[in-house]
């Protein structure tokens, strides 16, 4: 049970970190995470994942895939651990790229 709670806290911390990193997401993401939004969140997650898979089309892009997986993980606890790990790796990679970019300037 303790491991499950740790995974849940880690998952929630990743949402909080993303909201701090991208402030405009704070309102929509906190709203979508509420239990009452399941009828909207689940189909939206599936649409974002499908759009991410069709990233070769205009407007649809690979950016949709991680966002859809993140929303899907809210409803499927089995995805929370792997998605948390991917968010952590993505944030670390973005930080390293930003440091390299600043160093070049």
Could you tell me how far the N terminus lies from the C terminus, measured between alpha carbons in angstroms?
A: 49 Å
Structure classification: mainly alpha
Which range best describes the helical content: under 10%, 10-25%, 25-40%, 40-55%, 55-70% or over 70%?
over 70%
Mean of all residue-level pLDDT scores: 88
Question: Strand content of the residues, in percent?
Answer: under 5%
How is the quaternary structure best described? single chain
Q: Poorly predicted ranges (pLDDT <50, ≥5 residues)?
A: none
Shape: globular
Radius of gyration: 15 Å
What's the total number of strands? 0
Supply the number of helical segments: 5
Biggest sheet, in brief? none
Order of helices and strands: HHHHH
What are the SSEs and their pairings?
Layout lengths: L1 H20 L4 H7 L5 H16 L10 H12 L4 H25 L1
What does this structure look like?
By secondary structure, the protein is mainly alpha-helical. 76% of the residues lie in helices and 0% in strands. The chain has helices spanning 2-21, 26-32, 38-53, 64-75, 80-104. Helix 3 (38-53) packs antiparallel against helix 4 (64-75). The radius of gyration is 15 Å and the shape is globular. The N and C termini lie far apart (49 Å).
Supply database-style keywords:
mainly alpha; globular; 105 residues
Summarize the structure.
The chain has 105 residues and is mostly helical.
């Amino acid at each position: 049970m303790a491991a499950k709670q740790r995974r849940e806290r880690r998952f929630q911390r990743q949402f909080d970190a993303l909201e701090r990193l991208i402030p405009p997401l704070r309102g929509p993401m906190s709203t979508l995470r509420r239990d009452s939004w399941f009828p909207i969140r689940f189909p939206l997650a599936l649409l974002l994942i499908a759009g991410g898979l069709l990233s070769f089309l205009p407007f649809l892009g690979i950016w949709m895939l991680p966002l859809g997986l993140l929303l899907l993980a809210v409803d499927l606890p089995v995805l929370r651990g792997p998605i948390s790990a991917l968010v952590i790796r993505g944030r670390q990679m973005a930080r390293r790229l930003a440091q390299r970019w600043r160093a070049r300037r």
